Amino acid sequence: MVDWFSRQGARAVLDVIDPADGTEPGRLIFEYDNLDSANERDKRWILNRAMDAKEYSDQLSARTRGTKQ
C-alpha cells in the first residue's frame, strides 16, 4: 500500500523514481492499489498519497507527544 511505503512523504518516492544523484530511475508498483510509477497519472497519485501519509504521520506524532506531556 502506498501509505505504508514511507512516512517521509514525496521525497522517499522521488528518491526511487527520479533520483537526484544521476543513477538509473527505479519503478514503484503497488499491486494492492493497482498503481505503477511508469504511468504518469499513477505517479502523481503515488506522490499525493505519500504526502497524505506524511501529513497523517506528523499529526499522529504531535497528538502522541501532546498526550504524553
Give structural notes.
It is a single chain. Helix 2 packs antiparallel against helix 3. The chain has a two-stranded antiparallel sheet with strand order 1-2. A hairpin with a 4-residue loop joins strand 1 and strand 2 (35-36). It is elongated, with a radius of gyration of 14 Å. The mean pLDDT is 86. The protein is mainly alpha-helical. It has helices at 2-5, 10-17, 40-68; strands spanning 29-30, 35-36. 59% of the residues lie in helices and 6% in strands.
The assigned structural class equals mainly alpha
The topology string of helices and strands comes to HHEEH
Query: What's the structural domain tally?
Result: 1
Query: Quick one: overall form?
Result: elongated
Comma- or semicolon-separated keywords:
single chain; mainly alpha; 59% helix; elongated; 69 residues; 3 helices
Record the SSE blueprint.
Elements: H1 2-5, H2 10-17, E1 29-30, E2 35-36, H3 40-68
Helix pairs in contact: 2-3
In short:
Helices cover about 60% and strands about 5% of the residues. By secondary structure, the protein is mainly alpha-helical. The protein has a two-stranded antiparallel sheet with strand order 1-2.
